[in-house]
Amino acid sequence: MDPLSLLILPRARPSLPLRTAANNAARASPSAARLAPARRWRRQRARLSSPVSAVAAEAPPSPSPSGGGEEDSEGRFDWLDQWYPFAPVCDLDPGAPHGKTVLGLRVVAWYDRAVDEWRVFDDACPHRLAPLSEGRIDDKGRLQCVYHGWCFDGRGSCQFIPQAPALGPPVHKNSKACVASYPSVVQNNILWFYPRADAEHQDVLERKRPPFIPEIDDPSFVTVYGIRDLSYGYDVLVENLMDPAHVPYAHKGLMGKLRKKEDPGRYVRCPDMIVEFDIEGGGPMKMKIEEANVNGFLSPQENGGYFRYEAPCTFYGSPLPKEAKGEEKKKKKPQFMLVFMCIPVAPGKSRVIWAFPRNVGIWLDKIIPRWYYHIGQNAILDSDIYLLHIEERNFAAAGVENWQKAVYVPTQSDNMVIAFRNWFRKHCKSQVGWAAPTVDQLPATTTKDKLMERYWSHVTQCRSCSTALKTMKALEVALQVAAVAVVGFLAVAKGTLVTSVVHKTAIVSLAVLCFAASRWLANFIEKNFYFQDYVHAYK
To answer: Is 293 in contact with 76 (CB distance < 8 Å)?
Structure first.
């Protein structure tokens, strides 16, 4: 199987609720919407001592997938007893805090210079609940809230309250002045955190760690990382990544054809027989599902490759057969892996982090910047965003718990999708176990340029792309200034320095060239860093 793809209605529509049993119970009370602000306030107050467990307790009564352990008597999946990826470390600036929403929980990551480690906190200052992600790192290496200047160390303890008298009571030592600090670790060059801040969970690393991909840390491999926010939910993201059959159609013109060999029942070469086929190159795929349990499943591929889903976030594997243990390494076999981290953000919103380790073409990484890879990878994501956004709303209209009844999946190419949906239904009751009170209601469908925009969903989160964008914008301005300067020079030097027709033609041509280059660059910036539509009918 070739690499899986990474991956919008023009008019706004009213928000569409997800029809699940839990949501019906949560919306049974007419006052649910009015209580939302109060719940949020109580959640923030509870966060000061034991944020995540308290937040979960404040959630509306419903059959939440979170429980006391990874698997209880019913095989329920505990969403809070998992590690969640925050971002690739290469996209985190140690000189500034970074805020994200994960599992419905607003968190902020910052670099603690005192111990040379990344920290993950609740993204709310205990003073007046201002976002710490809008803060800064002060001259002492502490996280400072820029609303009133409160400062916190790596443990979440308040170290300084500017408004408190120096000789007065040490109010900064009060437990209410602390901010919740979540267990965090950098593994495979990705920052992970555990969404429980209680003291009993601070040593969670001794009990369990995030999924480990040895190829990423292998010095003979190079890895390209990326991150993107998406306008559809976690479950739709996961099943899309597990579906290789959509690649030649949804990503037509962006990826190679999947079919490796002919289907003897369809692709015959008899001149007197008419057999249906398509130019996109789709074809049958054989997929097996093994080791299916509450923690995920394995899918061996017929060519020797494999893909594994480690719930809830990690989906990885290789379309190429792995080297056998003990095999003579006379010549290094080409290896290429696809690693996806699927992060639930909120209902109708998700985030994907990808890492593609390989041991071939290593020299390319020395000359090709990461943002150049992201151009193609973002185009792949864009090409099915609208399809999946609308698909999710169709699922919601039918009832997510009725997925198996609403769809028709007769071929083996859907086996991984079916396996994931079975896992999601059996162990999670077809719902994400949010870490904070969340109304399971899909956001309204907006225009395609907002659903497929790249700047806020990717560029601002990617240091390589944001740096490239700044450089290109500066170059665009420089080209425009150069065009004007050349025309001005021609006007001033006419009849003195510039006397021949050849000189005038050369100078005018240079001005036109500079202006044309600036316009081309402006179009390149718009398409690759802001928005580019993908119209399937013309592909």
So the answer is: no
